[in-house]
Amino acid sequence: MAGGFLMEIRRGTQSALLVIRASAEDPGTPVEVSVSADSLEVRSSGSCAPAALPAGVRLAPSSCRGLRRLPGDGLHLRVRLRRPPPPADLAFTLRESLKPHKKYVFYCQSCGDIIVKDRKFLRVLPLPSENWNDLVEEWCCHPNPFARSTLRPQHDDCFLGDTFFMLNSGNESHVPESLTCCSETGHHASQSGFNLKSKENTRVICKRCKKMLGETISSDTIKYYVTEVIIQPSEGSFSPIPRSQFVQSMVAQCLLELSSAKSTFRFTVKGDNGKTYILIWLLNSDTLLVESLGSSSSLSVLTLFGDIFMPSSGPVGTWNAVKVLYQPCIKCRNKDFADAWENDMGVHPLKFPSETCLELLLMLGLSTASLPPSLRCMNSFQVAFLKM
């Protein structure tokens, strides 16, 4: 199948949009498409290219409708599924993966260096939302009772936020050799000598690869971002995960958890420097992507993060995904739009390291570029998939 195909399956509606990509060599060549329950077959210029669908995906050929050919895209058609596809087999969320009274090892996601070794928590507690303190005056008829108190983890506590987890660093299981905090100029400082009012001196970085892992909140509290650290049981072994796959999966999980718990679907992605990098609107959370890239000559997208955009199991790749609309906000782009979202109580902020925000923006851009041209935009937003 020289041009390949893209199938966007919705579990909720048991329907799929199928796009047979046009051949790059001769986009005007007549094409004959045969759809069966478990395979697709494309005939063009005397050649025949069959493609088997993943196990569990069964189409209803008689339901095909809306066939049309779009220049630059190829053939579009819609088809229903005979039965629901397999449920999403998602990785455990942070709240599910961390359990009290079990030992865990924390690794730097980028290089695999051990950050915290054999740490056992007696309590694993979720934190309230980032802006909970701003709403106290609306709840209480007397002065804010929490004005002078702060939420800090005690010995053997782990606090979970929307995009981070917070640990008490004054524990014997902490491995200080794996962490160092430094300023932007690279000067090292001991933990007791941090100037916590200076943002550049609160960054926690991996000593081996210099990747930012989190921030120091106080002299005995460290906040790690979920996109920078892999947590595994002590009895297990470290299994490296490609960077793009890990970041997309963790961000997608954050979007799913927050949309389910708080019924919010719009998010601002902010860096640790306080700048807004991306506006994200969660569109669909029940998507199953099936994709065949066809021959290498048909590829026109530079896959810098190719480990996630290339099928990993044979000619056809399958991913659980969330579909998002997004707007980049770097270099003052979409400033009015971003300001309006900042003042909207229905928009939820997500904070990550600034470098990770730029990585995420690049991944979204590559996802958009990999889609057929007619599917890349919706109203004033760009369309992308975060694969899990």
Number of strands: 24
Content-based structural category? mainly beta
| Mean pLDDT over the full residue set | 82
- Distinct helical segment count: 6
Q: Tally the structural domains.
A: 2
Shape: elongated
Q: How much strand?
A: 35-45%
Measured on Cα atoms, how large is the radius of gyration?
24 Å
Biggest β-sheet: count, sense, barrel? 10 strands, mixed
- Cα distance, first to last residue? 25 Å
List the uncertain runs.
Answer: 172-197, 296-306
Order of helices and strands: EEEEEEEHEEEHEEEEEEEEHEEHEHEHEE
The amount of helix comes to: 10-25%
GO molecular function, one term: cyclin binding
EC number: 2.3.2.26
Subunit structure: Interacts with UBE2C/UbcH10 (E2 ubiquitin-conjugating enzyme). In vitro, interacts with cyclin-B.
InterPro entries: UBQ-conj_enz_E2-bd_prot (IPR019193)
Explain what the structure shows.
It contains six helices and 24 strands. The protein is 15% helix and 39% strand. Strand 4 and strand 5 form a beta hairpin. The strands form four sheets. Strands 1, 2, 6, 7, 19, 20, 21, 22, 23 and 24 form a ten-stranded mixed beta sheet that branches. Strands 10-11-12-17-16-15-13-14 form an eight-stranded mixed beta sheet, with no helix packed on it. Strands 3-4-5 form a three-stranded antiparallel beta sheet, with no helix packed on it. With 388 residues, the chain is mostly beta strands. 30% of the residues are buried. The chain folds into two domains: 5-87 and 246-387, no CATH class; 98-233, no CATH class. This is E3 ubiquitin-protein ligase E3D. Its EC number is 2.3.2.26. One of its GO terms (cellular component) is nucleus. It catalyses: S-ubiquitinyl-[E2 ubiquitin-conjugating enzyme]-L-cysteine + [acceptor protein]-L-lysine = [E2 ubiquitin-conjugating enzyme]-L-cysteine + N(6)-ubiquitinyl-[acceptor protein]-L-lysine. Interacts with UBE2C/UbcH10 (E2 ubiquitin-conjugating enzyme). In vitro, interacts with cyclin-B.
